[in-house]
Amino acid sequence: MTDYLIRGADVLGRGAADIAVRDGRIVEPELLDPDATEIVDAAGLVALPGLVDMHTHLREPGKEDAETVLTGSRSAAAGGFTCVHAMANTAPVADTAGVVEQVHRLGRSAGFTEVVPVGAVTIGLEGRQLAELGAMARSAARVRMFSDDGICVSDPLLMRRALEYVKTFDGIIAQHAQEPRLTEGAQMNESAVSAELGLPGWPAVAEESIIARDVLLAEHVGSRLHICHVSTAGSVDLIRWAKARGVAVTAEVTPHHLMLTDELVRTFDPVYKVNPPLRTDVDVTALRKALADGTIDVVGTDHAPHTAEHKCSEWTAAAMGMVGMESALSIVVAAMADYDFGFGDVARVMSTAPARITGASGHGSLEIGASANIVLVDPSAAHTIDPAAHATKGRNNPFAGVEVTAQVTDTFFYGHRVLAAGALTTPHPAGATWTDH
Amino acid sequence: MKHLLDTASLSRNDAIAILDIAEEMALVSEREVKKLPVLRGRTVVNLFFEDSTRTRLSFEAAAKRLSADVLNFSAKGSSVSKGESLQDTIQTISAMGADAIVVRHSGAGTAHRLAHTGWIDVPVVNAGDGTHEHPTQALLDAFTLRRALAGVPASGPVAGGPRGQGLDGAKVAIVGDVLHSRVARSNVHLLSGLGADVHLIAPATLLPWGVEDWPVTVHYDFDAALSAEDFAAVMMLRVQHERMHESFFPNAREYARLWGLSAARLEKLPAETFIMHPGPMNRGFEISAAAADSPRALVLDQVENGVSVRMAVLYRLLTGQEETND
Is residue B325 in some structural domain? Predict the structure, then answer.
């Protein structure tokens, strides 16, 4: 493996320093052999620990026309993610040790990012019976996070049992908070816009009522709860309240909910169709504040690629979801521009906190001795987002044509430079042996 | 105007212009040959993804009176029922040589999508999209109301029809299932844009979220509204029976009792209040037979005027003599 000296990067936005990478780890620079070290001139770039995405849909197995673990991994590397969690709503569903091990193995052979499967909470995501959570936890994939994402675990008793059961192996339940009866047939946020457009609404209360219930359940049974893609101001208030009570709840927001509102639905362009739906200005402001003050712990992309035929249709027939790994960092920086939110905060919400919550021990640190999962960001590379140029198969990126300033330029994945000056290179040479596990 | 997709973005001037052209079109019906040669050689496609014999026939009659050729496409039994995409369907039909597309679809926004995706490049007329809009219905309602309020026959050829006028000051009640009604949405925009004072009367379950911010007055109590206001017209909306199974109201009896235009309420209406209904009517449910058959009911005038108004819309879009205002 090549050793690197990353020279002059602004580390975490705290000032310029060198980062030495040897045999996949961050080491003291004097340990490098100057004759066998590649110098990376990082003057003007910001160095952050490799990003960790708690929320992606890599579509494999079953929907390989939309994305594969390989294309999704390349997309992750291009977006600066050295670890991504792959949601369970594949076909077959990731509800057994066999499927999660398959996804895990596909991730290793892809070699562009660490792919951590998320196990389903219930068999087939059907909300009736617990999946084999223990078997998935003990499998080679070492699953710790479980979610029926895309579908809410709406049965309160089943949710309680799941929260309790995963305590056995320090697991966490990631809830897709959506009361199903309140959102039957829903097409967009229930708002003045939905009323005018005549599209069936997805009210904020459908999210908030589940969050209220689940934080109380998590408190009652003393379990860890993660709320996926928080989208409303009311949800923020509930999470703030729960944290003040000491509930072990963490929360996530997507880049698109930090940036876009339901006014965009007036175009009837299905690229803006997503679940939970785009909300209002009031919600966007509340989410930004919550991310700045730590009420919301992490940014997760909810990267959800769809084939063109599922998006190039009428609004009501289109699939819900947006891709976003390759624009996530740029959008988060842009969305938080008006807040006291530096690159240290970007590292907190996109790397350190998600690594801590999910137990991704190889990520989230630039300390000496840590695995060399590093991303370099050019903070002043003004550019226009062009989804056609992205590595993901999905073209359903809602930020096409948006001008942003920050851009990921380099990604070091366990010491291997998978993204060099904006271009994807080669998979990690060590193949199956690169992790700390 | 390149397309007619909604009334929300239709200016007062454009709306009045369409109504005035419709006055001219109404004169055609007194001719011996009820046809104008203006769209000869042009093809209008009626693309109906949702069943609607009445609206389709009205558009067909309108196009034929303008001498256009008409192709009717119904999704039932077509490739759409076998899973063909909207894009393939529309491009297939366009390849057969459509000069205008009249589209009805169960999903809100479909007409807008056809007009703006670049799949086709012909005028699109929205003949009803989900619970969003039904602009030609609102235009024919406005036309009928304008006639009735001017004291001239509500339909048929009228040489000195009320051209150039809006509906300024007219107090119009729209009663019933506003939530699921594209007719109501189109009428709220159009009638208030033409200067009418629009009132919505319905149970809270059948009103859209945030209706308090609409340019309307809302009443839950039909009787109280009738006592308090002097309506120039009461427009009853069709209510689907299946709504009661979704708990929008307890049952048909209670709905009819509280929000139906019963014979008793008909008695209480001022003599000069007109009764409208977009059809098809549920007699005995939202409207009593006494009201439907009363001389003040404009229901059949609305149907007749629908043809004139749709002629005006097709004429305006297809002869393209107007400034664009899309």
Answer: no
